[in-house]
From TrEMBL:
This is Gypsy retrotransposon integrase-like protein 1. It holds the Pfam family rve. Residues 1-123 form the Integrase catalytic domain. It comes from Plakobranchus ocellatus. One of its GO terms (biological process) is DNA integration.
Amino acid sequence: MLVDYATRFAEAVPLRKIDTESVAEALVDIYSRLGVPEEVLSDQGTQFISDCMKEVCRLLGIKQKTTGLVERFNATLKTCLRRLCSEQPRQWHRYINPLLFAYREVPQESTHFVPFELLYGRIV
């Protein structure tokens, strides 16, 4: 999961494994679509603080820091997924994009703006 600090625009990619290589590939995919950030704020997960991830960030010119912002978004997304997937928990990956769309369309308490509008400059 990735949350833009300024706009609160969120991205998430379902992964079979949450290891450094899988996470790095997912991040490069996101950066290829949205652009490479100057700075990445992450949780203390081993996949984010590994030497491999540090090297990926160095090669892309990204500064790494840790924060609770992503953990709060993770908790929100997991709560929504549990409610939606109670009957078919193994199908959680099918709900990621609709949940992201809903999250991106709600004014955020911290910014009072809609993340999608801040990122793309238009209303959906």
